[in-house]
User: Fold these one by one.
Assistant:
Number 1:
Amino acid sequence: MESNQPALRDIGPAAIRRPRFKLPPELGIFGVLVAIALTFELLGWFLRGQSFLGNPTGLLIMILQVSEIGLIAIGVTMVIITGGIDLSSGSVVALAAMVAASLAQSSDATRAVYPGLLDLPMALPVLAGLAVGATVGFLNGSLIVRTGVPAFIITLGTMVSARGLAKLYTHGEPVSTLTDSYTWIGADANPVIVFLGCALFFHIVLRYTRFGKCTYAIGGNPVAARVSGINIQRHLIIIYTIAGLLTGIAAVIGSARAQTGQSGMGVSYELDAIAAAVIGGTSLSGGAGRITGTVIGALILGVIASGFTFLGVDSYFQEVIKGGIIVVAVVADQIRKQKKR
Amino acid sequence: MTDHDSRAAQAAGDAILLGAKDICKRFPGVVALNKVSLFIRAGEVHALMGENGAGKSTMMKILAGSYVPDEGELTLHGRPLKLKTPRQALDCGIAMIHQELNLMAEMTVAENIWIGREPVNALGLVDHAKLNSDTRALFGRLRIDVAPDCLVGELSIANRQMVEIAKAVSYDSQVLIMDEPTSAITEREVEHLFEIIADLKAQGKAIIYITHKMNEVFRIADTITIFRDGRHILTRAAAQMSPDGLIAAMVGRELNQVFPKEEVPIGEVALSLRGLSRKGQFRDVSFDVRYGEIVGMAGLMGAGRTEVMEALFGIERPDAGAILVDGKPVTFRNPRQAIQAGLALLTEDRKKSGLFLGLDVASNMDIAVLPNYTSFGFVRQKRLAADCEDMSRRLKIKTPSLEEVIGNLSGGNQQKALIARWLLNKPRILILDEPTRGVDVGAKAEIHRLVTQLARAGAAIILISSELPEVMGMSDRVVVMHDGRVSGEIRRADFSQEAILTLASGLTLPAALAA
């Protein structure tokens, strides 16, 4: 009665002891991205006689446009993995952009927010923007952890208040005429470099560090995480602060690229960021999600927007279709996951 | 009031390793622990027993840092110990295997075991190779056969429990608390666990062992402590206690340990399985169940018993074979159809697939029966409430009220509430998958009595259990499964542990044991 067979049997085919080749889970959603791009390519030939993908400038512009959403989505991915959510990102973009821009005005500015603080070295407005983002993030995390109120409600409150603060900051006046050193951040392909750099960094953190594993643990089973000795409160505060920081980076890049700071910036960015994360395979119930998936999710949103513009589709109609594509992409992925079980 | 046998204390000879003195812990509406003291010595296996709700798990959670006591103090090696978080307890050398499995299903076995203390390389990144090899080494030492890179969610409950055990051992702590570690594993794994415990004991570690199983206590425990209703009742050397004395102390009254098996008239065939198969799970399963009969299903972990029941109940579709109810072939596309045909299924893991932990007892009970009480879309509350109250009284469910959140009830009472859920439907065929897992002695006997009553009332019952005494005590016949196939059927007259275990291991019965 020494046979080991019963124990091995119920582990199932997945646990064979030789090193097994596992298909990366992002393959499915990458396939969706390719499918959508190819669809636009075909439609482009049919309807306009032009190649959608054959235009490198167009592709670069597309990735540029998703860089801001993408940066926010990285932070939101980590927040969702822990089982939380962050609705405040869009408003924080506005607030951080306003503050950063107000410190980045050049002496040519006709309406200076701080007449005494013109032509400041670019590092100052950048740090200010990041600080605003990180501070709001820290506030989110602390409130969620100390009050026990669900993240949805707390970040909803921050979302509303941050937008109000952004409007209050200059009583609705846009902040313009920014220094060249600041707007350089948004020039050429710099936003893409920042986006992909952050994506790579946090991908490594999530997959290869203790911090990353604890993040998955907290979302996967908070009780188990606690009894395993993880300091959940401290960890969550850090996660939300990071999400805020990334939102700050997005704000800096956005205001640099647009060469202005306006209180109306970032509207519904949080929803796009969450959509990118969910399309990319992040589970809203927590415990699962990958940065690589989120990047693909952001690209899918970018391809859709670019593709429709390329085809000359009415922008209102675009919104209608975009929502539908998001649902279809996630359902397709779900079905594939179900079949695998 | 308390009964610490000082002779036993001196006989153990060692100094007190971990002490708890006059601990009080209150929750809204209930005093969980009332001036309870407990003293653990190095190198001893200290069994902690008592009915559910006696305060055992609460006490252990205080020792493991999950709860902070309202009053009282803890000592470690004689020095005062203040624990505010599980991390502190782990750092002080106290590790715990919880009754409810605390694992992250989406992460691998290795990640689960070393979470929060993963080996890192020079760059500060997790060293996955070492993570897996450390796990293999640990499993090798403990002779556990699970792949480190397997997702915990893919493992059976029994294997998950082995992973939990390995995880607790890996902390190399001085005190190891085990809360019902054998509730989800079968005889062979239990033996294995006992070997691990003996090893740890030899290393001078202390083990606190919470269990309801009499035979386990007398096999491995050096000292026995009994709690009842949040109070310490007695602590005595195991050698000086008898099973009856134990039970009497636990329930405060004499209890008949013997399973109340009655002879019940057996009627027509209620349910027939013919050649039921499902790829990768079970093959060619055939047997009958008659009205009034209790058919036990025995087998080792992974034998496929639960999977067969899931196919029966419409949760999964079999690939081949037939199911006949009252002689007529049926296909259940979903559980609702099975319920309408008169079946009921009490699942194996109530936390995972039975309870709505956040809802009250009444909602947990009436969920499956709502259509019967609904007219024009509205639920007839009064009739429903009355029937729930009646059922709760019949099953003696211990709860302040039916509005109490079911998560606050003890395991035994949660199980009874789930049984009530099914009984409200008046099922003709009842499938019970490990109905007394994690249930105390008193509630267990009540559940057994209940099952017998149901058989007497004419229901056909399938009872899956990994506890041989339970299977043998309750059943008229036992169907034994091994590796997805039925390896044999044994009639009550021919019951023996050896026969059942032989068939469960896939061996053939020698002529002497065969029916």
Number 2:
Amino acid sequence: MKLSYLLLPLLLHATCAWSDDAKVNKEVSEVKKAVLELNQELYQLEKDLLSPATTQVAFYLSLANGKYFEPLALDIKAGDLPAIRHIYTERQIQALRMGAVQPIASDNIGPGKHSIEVTLRGKDGQGQEQTLSLRSEVEKSAAPLMLEVVVRDDSNSKQATASLRVW
Amino acid sequence: MRIPSFTGHAIPQALMIAFVQIALPLLLLTLPTKALAFKLGETFPDFSIPSAFVDYGQRLSEQRGKPVMLLVLDRCDTCDSKLHDFTTLAQSYAQQDLVTWVLWSQQKDDQPPRISLPVLNVSHPWQQGWTTPSPLPALYLINPDGTLEQQFFGSIRALHNYSQSYLSTWMQSLLRPQGQ
């Protein structure tokens, strides 16, 4: 009986301590959440400052079928921007064949007309080396510029063609 | 005029000048300018390198979860025969998910080795993230988590021998469940 009198305050103390701990843990997780949200906002702010819509340009690539051409390497020259290059792996080609649109790069470019040169090195349906090239002129307005390099099979000529699509 | 040396013998001035003006710069030139070494246990830098043939490129980070063996060649012009034993060794571990790539650098009109392993052209201007280490040839074993397990330097024959003995233990340790 005496033992229970001794244990009771201890038990009560432990319960209080546990409830305090739970409260502190909850507060800590709330603070963590707030910090994460703030970080996200700061990241967005930084992104908007560094790459505002007026100068934003993004490049994408898609492959329709890929029966007559599989890209192995890509080179894009756009205005004064440093060359954008990409090496394709088997896994990436598989994803493109399944309909994926690949974000290649995003950068900043001034408003006005810009010359875009795309060179795609790859292999044709027989596994022979083939190069697809395209040159186009695009105009950058105040809105973000999204450019998609579309590689499409032409069943009539049994060859693939590359074209540039402006979103 | 004769310059006294540490040994007490006099060194002719002309000899000293010749050493400083000719031999010393030559000696400095022969030193490796970029002795790059990767550290064991650290994440191996990611790279993306095109094939030396009309084939897919390879990216190291895509192989996470698998052990990777990289053989970096020194000058090699159709050195297929030199790589025969190494290719056989790599193929014997391919069933245990070991990924093996041969990294080749084109010099002059050299042709890449035609072997059954993927041969990547590190001298291609479009490669990304790769810096050829020194000395060469070199062999790198990369853990499934992307960290460098071991590195060897020496001739192709020596690398084959090193890797042969190391691979059996390493691959067994990877097959074993963790904590055993």
Number 3:
Amino acid sequence: MKTRCTTLSAGLLLMAALLSGACLAKDNTRESSLRAAELARFAANVAADGPALEKLLDANLEYSHSNGKLDSRSSFIASLADGSLDYHGMEPDIQSLRIFGDVGVIRGFAKVRVSMRGTTSEFTIGYTDIWLWKDGRWQMTEWRSARMPDAPAK
Amino acid sequence: MRIPRLLPTLFATLMLAPALAAPRGDATSAGAAILARFDAALRGDVGALDNLLADDLDYCTFRGDCQTKAQYLGEVKSGRLKYVAIDPAVSKVKLFDDSAVVTGLANVTAIRDGEEHTIHISWAGVLAWRDDRWQMTTWTSTLLERPAPIKPTK
């Protein structure tokens, strides 16, 4: 009887360990892939890479620029394609990355050099973006940002 | 020999039982939780806010700075931040197993450090289903160029 109980306990512990290990591995993988997706998205913005952005941005994206302009995924990609929005450089500095189930939240700062309708400016933003785990990959669904007051536009 | 054979079933039942028994949040309750948060903020109801905000809240304002739950509640409690009017509207709720992303617009009038300001924002909140209720884990907003098209409630 003692042997059976020991076997039962050991079995339960092993299964619990395997399950929690699998969960931790999944979380770590998702965290790494979310960070990679974030960096890829900034790079795709600068490269005006429409096909890459199609994959990285959710179809229901709401993109609120720091100047208050609202874009959808299609209008954002179109403005990069026609050059009315031209990112010369974006240097992200990720402050925190959190995952709640299938939702990822990243907060950070970014140095931005951008031309909008021919006017070039450089500033630092504080941003929060929200990602969804859909179709086996991270897709950004929300972007909110604000120009930092201690780094005014040059 | 019978007990080990039953182990997987027993373990699966133990793992699934809490999930099956617990009530789950839906899109309607997620939207309601966000609106309740606005209402509690307007009333300066720190007790209600404490219940609606997650302990690990990351509260990022339209200025690009972020606060913890304790910092935000401290501002409301001390009167340093006092809301005069909030007219919010929920635009979308994206629901997942144990999390939700709620977005919308708001026109907000508040007194901060004795000075009254009216702002118009596009906002996003991430909710996590914990302890049988929605708790807001992330708040972020961006200033809009013009007032949000919301019918004032007062």
Number 4:
Amino acid sequence: MIAAAFSRPFWPLFLHVLGAMTLFGAVLAALILALAGQRRTTFLALLTAVPAWVVMRAGAQWIYTKEGKWPTNPTWISIGFDVADMGLIVLLLALGAAFWWRRGGSAHAARATAALSGIYIALLALAWLAMSGKWG
Amino acid sequence: MSTYHWLLTFHITAAFFFVGGSVAAAVLNALAIRAERPSETAVLLRLVRRTLPVIFLGVGGTIVFGIALWRCQRYSIGAGWIWGSLVLWAIANALGGIGGRHQERARELAERLAAEGDASTPELKAILTDRKGNAVSWAAGLATLGILVLMVWKP
């Protein structure tokens, strides 16, 4: 079974999808915690999103290296890369705001953490809609 | 977009809700196990309920749009990977329900302890770290992972 799986482009796509779904779940948990005012655990939930992002992005690059043979990237690939790479900035900003909130307990930090987590979830949704619908 | 791509978009969105919601519930449960005070454990286990609408949307959407895709793509009625996914889907839901009831028992005890002085007891620790209860949740997670393997691999 494993040998057969290796003979097809299974692992890159599997890791990409698994990483993306885990990333969505971790940020969703962080958003729920932030909205409930749980400053210590919000930071921990967002921390779990970082390895998930790495798996998602590594899987994406692996697939692209094997199968990305277009002269110019189709829209859905561009959206995927843009959300993955620029979205990392949003994720790190959310993590920073959660750290600030955890240390100082500022209400601004709490709102920023919840807002950035919400924005990141919206970006992830945009990416999965574009990629599954093969936009462009 | 073609009908196929619309159905695939809805199916994948539902899969994100199913798996992502389950991951969110698992993260909240793991944080509840690590919490020091029963009041913290109770709050975190109560928050698990907020993931349920997401999980239920995912559970319903994956089956409805999955079957629609099956018809749209005219996959064989005997396609083993589809039947395997359906069996794993049923197992994941059954085990997820059992694991959820275990978490509810832990939440009720944590709430009672929180109201009685907020000191942890060996009973709460035992129920939170109960091997059987946690094994059921892990098995539900593995069944979900199995569905993802079959959906990507399509043997």
